[in-house]
Every structure is written in C-alpha cells, then in structure tokens.
Amino acid sequence: MEPAQWLADYRGRLERAADGARQARESLEHAGATAHSPRGEVTVSVNAAGVLEGVALTPAARKLEADALAALIVTTAREAQRLAGERMADVMAGYLGDGPALTQLTRHLSPEVVR
Predict the structure, then answer these.
(1) What is the tens place of the pLDDT at every residue in 45-91?
(2) Cα 5 from Cα 97, distance rounded (Å)
(3) Cα–Cα distance list, 63 to 28, 36, 40, 66, 79 (Å)
C-alpha cells in the first residue's frame, strides 16, 4: 500500500472515530432519567452519571411519615439511577460494542442493566 493511501485511510478511521465519540457524547448528554414512585408522590431526576438533579413531591407526599417519605425518595432515586445506567450502557454499547471496554464502564451498574 502506498504511504499516501495508508495515511488517507488512517485519517478516515480517525474521523469516523471522532464522529462516533461526538455522537456518543451528545447521546450521553440526554441519557439522564426520571422515575416516579408507584403512587406518584415522588418524582426524581438524575443525569447520565446518576447524579441527582431534582426531586419533586406532590401534596400526597405530605401524608406520609417522614421515614416512609425518605425511603420512598431513596427507592425512586435508585430507579432513576438504574434507568440512567441502562441508557448509558446502551449508548456506550453502540459506540464501543460489547467487550472489555464496555464491561469496565458498566461494572458498577446494577446487575439488571449489565449485558
């Protein structure tokens, strides 16, 4: 193979990799999740990393005891984090494919998210 052709092929691969990384980054920006408690008293939103971004309570939440409400918030937050982790894993699987890199990224996710 001619050096010029090899260089052109290499540049093409680099451009495709950069495009894929850009698409993955854009997808991850929108990979957060929102979860609602079973009866709707609590809504929790997290970003793609599972970091809490918001908690909303309905008037029905006021009827709950403090400990019950706290537990409901935690449970709902965990569900939002699970959903965000699932979305993140899907995005990264499309970028990385199934393999060791994806396994490394998803090793801390809940078992139902990991492929």
Answers:
(1) 999 888 999 999 999 999 999 999 999 999 999 999 999 988 888 88
(2) 27
(3) 37, 17, 13, 9, 22
